[in-house]
Every structure is written in C-alpha cells, then in structure tokens.
Amino acid sequence: MHDAFKDREIETGKIMSDVKAQYKEPRSKVRKILVYTSRYTTVLQYVARDLAQGFQDAGHETEFLIEPYDWSRVTSYDLAQTLLRLNPDCVIKLDHVRGEAPECYPANLPVITWIMDDFSHLWHPEMVSRAKPHDLILCMSGPFEKQALDAGWPRSQVKICPMAVNDHIFHPDVPTRPEYECDVAMIGHLPDLALWRDKDQEVFQHHLFRQKIRTDVVDWALEMGFNVKIYGQRWDVVENGKYKDLWMGEITNGPDLASAYKSASIVVQATVDSNIHMRFLETIACGGFILPRACPDDDLPGGLHDLFPGYPTFTTKEEFVASLMSRTVSNPSNVTQNKILSEHTYKARAAQIAAWLEELLGNCQER
Q1: Helix axes 2-22, 76-86, angle to 10 degrees
Q2: Contacts with 134 (C-beta within 8 Å, 6 or more apart), sequence order
Q3: Pick from 151, 185, 274, 300: most CB atoms within 10 A?
Q4: How far, in Å, CA of 48 to CA of 352, rounded?
Q5: pLDDT reported for residue 331
Q6: pLDDT value of residue 269
C-alpha cells in the first residue's frame, strides 16, 4: 500500500511538471474555466454547480470538478490530470484559497476564491502572503469584504460578489405541486450543536442563535394558526421532536425545491449572515413570496436593501405577525423578479467575474 501511494505521488509530480510548462507565460484572456468544489458540503456544491452553468451560458468552456460518488475523493492527482487536460485560464474555488495547497497551482494560473463563510484560514496572514497578484477574492457580502481588506488582501483583488440564481432551475414557469402547498414554509437546516458544545463556545453560541431564530419563526407561525411545513436537517430531533410532525424531510436543490418555493404562500428566511441568499433569489425567481428576517448587512454594499431598496423584513415577533397578517410580503412585484432574472443570474455573475479577472490580468502585465 505504501508503494502504491508513493508511486501515485511520483506520478502526480510528473503531471504537475507538464502542467507548469503550460503556464510559463501569463495570460490575458479568460476562455476556459475550472470550478472546483466538494460534494461534502451543503450549499457550496450547488453554488459551484450553478456558477459552472453560468460560465457555460456566458460562452466559456467550463468544467466542474467534484467527487463523483459519496465515498470518493478528489485527490491532487485528479486535480493535476484535470489541469493538464483542460488547461484552464483560471480555477474557481469556494471558501478555499491558493495558499492552502500552493503546490497544486502554477504561479501564472489565477485562483479565484468566492467567500461564502467566515472561516479563519481565509484571513490568515500566511494565506494572504501566498497569493499571486492575479488571484481574485470574491466576497458574498460587505462584511466579508471588510474582513478580507482588514486581513491584508489587496484592494484591487477584492470584489463584492453576491449570490445568484440558476434560472435553468428557478424560473417563472416552475409548477406548483399539491404536496408542497402550505401557508408558511421554513426551508433550511438546523446546526448540529453537539459538534461545538464542548469545543468552541463562540461558534456554539453563533449556531445556537441561528437555531433559535429559525425555531422562533416556526413557533410564531404556529401560534397564528398557519399550516407550516419544514424542510431540512435535524428538525425532526431538535427540542425532543417538537417539530417532527411538521418536518417533511430534506429537499434536494433542483426542480423539487423550486416547486416547494412556489407552492408555499410564504417562504420565511431566517439567517444570520446575509439575506442575499440563494433561497431569497430562487424563491422570487420562481414567482414565490419570501419574508426575510433582518440581517446586519441589509443596508451595506451588496446587502438586501442595497440591491432591492425597500424590501420588507422583520426582526421581532410583532413585526413578523404584522407582515403576515397585512401580507406586506405578498408579491414583491414583477420589477423585483425581472431584476433578479436579468441582473442576478449566474450567467451575469460569470460575465462580471471574467471581466474583473481580465482587467486584473491586464493591470498585472502593465506593471
């Protein structure tokens, strides 16, 4: 077994020598894209899938690298083979940077990181120091942009890039389905608190708050007499099974989720980071109605009210009840839906990312 691993390591090194030879000179155009992620994620695998689709829609030759099976892994050998065969003009990763595995990426190959979560390695000085001048840091929201700049990532390499919608799946022609009909739908996982209870109290408290704001919303809707359906992990076991009868199981990101969004009278969003979440954009793209809980970044660049001024939110129980009773969330208007489907698709994001990178490459060559 040791010999097999050693042989594979030697073979990977040989392939990487050929890969590096392909990148002797810097490039100025972005035509081929490699989007690289892991299936052992919740949201990220779908964002990466949809971004790859967006680049294809924008006319780029694109490949999506992910483990093919639940028991498989993408190794450095697999990555090296893909780089040699595709010869991409950039690699895009979510929540991961070049500095974690610098030996896997030639110096002249741009690595783009789209930051979706607040992970400490993203702000680590060593990760920043290992970056190349043509690497891009895309931040889902304004607070992440501030963290990136405070960590030392260069201003010219940091951009706000909110989430987007895959309009191949989430669009106005999505059908409603009787099995998804309800007054209020809560679609989202609950955190596994046991993982953090005895490890990191700050993280534990963060997840505890995240769970509370979601269970509170469900409780408020039930108190008002609404028919509630819940989708996502761990709702069947939290609080001694309190929500088990409302729990409809997990729902896969795809046509089923699109119909669930559209079939509910109201989809409720309770998140702690940003309301420009795929759930918000996807629900409205389908023609559904969504009421988000207010987030700290709503009024910041890239936040909810920056992109969609005046969109209703709630924080307290009284605000939630008033919104549901008055139906202020009824239809966010065709203007909002049209804006999402024209400005906030993955095709639009892909075109913007390619333009940012080509501008950065041009500036690097002028130096």
Answers
A1: 30
A2: 26, 108, 110, 357, 360, 361, 364
A3: 185
A4: 16
A5: 55
A6: 96
Report the candidate in 112, 159, 114, 155 with the shortest Cα–Cα distance to residue 136: 112
How many residues are given for the chain? Answer: 367
Q: Report which DSSP code applies to 189.
A: P
Q: CA nearest 95: which of 142, 146, 144, 166? A: 144
Cβ atoms within 10 Å of 128's Cβ, excluding its own = 17
Regions of the chain with pLDDT less than 70: 1-2, 4, 326-335, 366-367
Token reading at 86: 């595709």
Write out the DSSP string of 133-186: TT-EEEESSHHHHHHHHHHT--GGGEEE----B-TTTSSTTPPP-GGG-EEEEE
Task: Reduce the secondary structure of 274-320 to three states and give it as a string.
Answer: CCCCHHHHHHHHHCCCEEEECCCCCCCCCCHHHHCCCCCCECCHHHH
CA distances from 98 to 27, 93, 120 (A): 18, 9, 15
SS3 1: coil
Reading the block at residue 218, the tokens are 């469900």
pLDDT at 2: 61
Q: Which residues contact 237 (CB under 8 A, 6 or more apart)?
A: 244
**What pLDDT does 327 receive?**
58
Distance CA 110, CA 30 (A): 10
Distance CA 278, CA 162 (A): 9
Helix then strand then coil, % of the chain, to nearest 5? 45, 15, 40
Question: Vertex 204, ends 202 and 205: CA angle to 5°?
Answer: 65
User: Edge-to-edge strand order for the sheet containing 111-115?
Assistant: 61-65, 32-36, 90-94, 111-115, 136-139, 158-160
Phi, psi (5° rounding) for residue 182? -170, 170
DSSP 247: B
Q: What is the pLDDT of residue 99?
A: 95
Measured distance CA(327)–CA(265) in Å, rounded: 10
335 alpha carbon, distance to own chain's centre: 24
Closest CA to 161 of 73, 12, 290, 54: 54
pLDDT at position 328 = 47
